[in-house]
Amino acid sequence: MDTSLPPAAAPNPNSPTPARYLTHLRVERRLSPRTLANYTRDLGLLEAKAADRAWHDITQHDIRLWASKRHAEGADGKTIAAMLSCWRGFFTWLCEQGLCTHNPVQGVRAPKTGQRLPKALSADMAQQLLNSPTHLPTRSPSPQALSEQEVEGVETVEDDHSVLCRDQAMMELLYSAGLRISELVGLDVQPIQTRDYQSLGYVDMPAALVTVVGKGQKRRTVPVGSVALAALEKWLSARAQWPHVVCQEALFLSARGLRISPVVVRQRLALMAQRAGLPTHVHPHMLRHSFASHILQSSGDLRAVQELLGHANISTTQIYTRLDWQHLAKAYDAAHPRAKKQD
Fold this sequence. Notes:
This is Tyrosine recombinase XerC. Helices cover about 50% and strands about 5% of the residues. By secondary structure, it is mostly helical. The protein folds into 2 domains: about 15-95, DNA polymerase, domain 1 (Orthogonal Bundle); about 125-330, Intergrase catalytic core (hpI Integrase, Chain A, Orthogonal Bundle), CATH 1.10.443. Strands 1-2-3 form a 3-stranded antiparallel sheet, with no helix packed on it. Helix 11 packs across helix 14 (about 320-335).
């Protein structure tokens, strides 16, 4: 039997089972479009291998073999772990539907891979970014700052007062509350709950709180700092004068009056970092990492950081302790009289 995996594939339309599972994930579990796209790809890989076999005939040996082959093709441990997680969930669902009697992915682990430290700005660099002058002329971000897909979707708009107010409010909120980019773009002006629509997030200005629905449909509420609130006040005033509003409920609007997209947020942040003269490429998730790192440096409270970030497991948050240790080690080397090498 051929055990190779294609680089990508879509689920076979002749087999409705993966499509039913994807519908279940979209409708009942309300996974994000990006997560659904990843699951579609990974289920396509699984279906390509099991095309001539019933699901209940797949063995743990098959799964190990396919995962090993994927690793040999260059996929890292994190990619394989995500693939196995998708497959594991699919077989669990099959068992619940009575279409399979066992889960062959149970107990199969991805190869270990080195854990990369998240990239975070220093507190000074974060201040430099957010205090950057807004009167400079518009410049396109460098090719290194944006991917080809993002370059095709960039927002071409003059940097008038309203646009600059919007950009400042978005970046202040990303850093002040540690939001994911999907959480930021999903914010509404006010909470809406009807039979047809339910807000995924909103900012309570009087209470200085932002509420979002994050990964796994986990709802969390995070404080918003005074500087971010002031930036939001300015943006709301500018938003009232936005020339063409299509998406009335969205807090942040694109030039066409639609809900702003992650691509545009990345583009505007890259431009902001260029204007601030930062020596590194800055992306939205870096502001979330910076938020976590700076809170931990100031408080030392890992549990609080876990709650603020919305991590289900504290092990996910613990990587920031390594960033904090790096910060402390540098401070020690710079300040302690016995830390420096003697000439």
